[in-house]
Amino acid sequence: MDKKKNLPIFLLISVFIIATCGLIYELVAGALASYLLGDSVKQFSFIIGSYLFAMGVGSFFAKYIVKNLLDRFIDIELLIGIIGGTSSVILFLLFQQVEHFQLILYLFVFLTGCLSGMEIPLLMNILKDRVNFRDLVSNVFTFDYIGALIASVLFPILLIPKLGVMGTSLFFGIINVTVGIFLSFYLSKQLKNPIILKIKSLVCFIILIGLFFYSNELLKYSENQLYSTNVIYKHSTPYQRIVLTEAKGEYQLFLNNNLQFNTKDEYRYHETLVHPAMSIAKSPKKVLVLGGGDGLAVREILKYSSVEKVVLVDLDEGMTKLFQTNELLRKHNANALNNSRVEVINRDAFLWVKEAKDKFDVMIIDFPDPSNYSLGKLYTNNFYKSLYPLMEPQCIVSVQTTSPYFAPKSYWCIYETIASVFPNNLAYHTYVPSFGEWGFNLFSPDMRVNFNRVNQRVPNLKYYNYNLQKMTDFPADMKAVDVEINRLDNQILVRYFDEEWSKI
Question: Which distant-in-sequence residues (6+ apart) come within 8 Å of 161 by Cβ?
């Protein structure tokens, strides 16, 4: 086989691998920012912008590499593999240890982007005398873009659910280094320092293989450091990282590093979310729950004997299956998601409500906080309007609406957005020790509904005493502020939320 003749083919295949790995490292950085710093639009935007800028810097400096191009190409391939591959390991381990964590995160983004940016110009210089220029440019960018597409498809569907963030970055680091190993052996006679390159590539490969083999232990150690409690369950779905921890017999659920509930006081939250709406409704038979894949809101709803059917719509099947099958969690939600009266639907609620035909007496909306645009759309006036066809005439709706103390703009933005569609609405709040002051909203399409009228009660609640009026008083530091309505085309709520919670 003529190795010089086949060099363009192998290098173009390298372009495909480079593009795939490069985008994976960018997505890993975005996922890490989501898990560790909060699912912030700002973080994803900065990471994408920084990575693309770094690629430009790398492309600029590539012109100064004029000697031993094949050697330098392999060197860069190995550097990308070891830096990009180990990035998630190092970042997970350093998150709790360093004060300016974001600087280290963006340093990794810049380094991988810069090195990736060097590779394409360097490759084109290597091939310029072997391939027609028009074909060279066309082929290089074709392979580059195809690799990027495949990476973007595989990342959420296959890689994160199967390997997790740490395993994914290490796996693609191994792929990068494997390309370096192949080229250093296959092109040995065309390299200036083949022995040194072979040694470096094998050392990088051994390091990454070792880290990949122990990645579960490393992740367990880093997450124990992160949560300061015993991690007893962890799983990555296409939508989020689910972590369950235990401390002194109490359990805490985290989604993307954000606390969702603590078993010692979650009843305060769920009783306050569910029972005002259920007790005001005269005889609720059909109840819709949007979000709430943990089944804890459903547990409270099923305490009412009039309920004939509960429809739970939650995007993440991994979440609902966990709370349907895990013995510990089933005990805590009273096996609510396996109750014969409950139907679980795993779909995007924004789309589902536009297609649903049933009507409901009560709706409980328990979405995660609006930390990104995909969640923010579930708090828009467009979404609330789409609920109207599913409402019985005197339907009562309860919505969790984040903290009026920590995020007053966000809280009152949701209130005003609801009021723009359903004028008969009521703001209220309560104290949950794990979260602090937490807010909710009630609304109904019927202006005659009195939210302070109790039509039915269930016994033995731990916290809620059916006196809603005392929860409607807001002190000065939680008062309404001048806010805009959250519309689908502006998503102002996400900006409010990011601005307020980033200060905490």
Answer: 236, 237, 238, 318
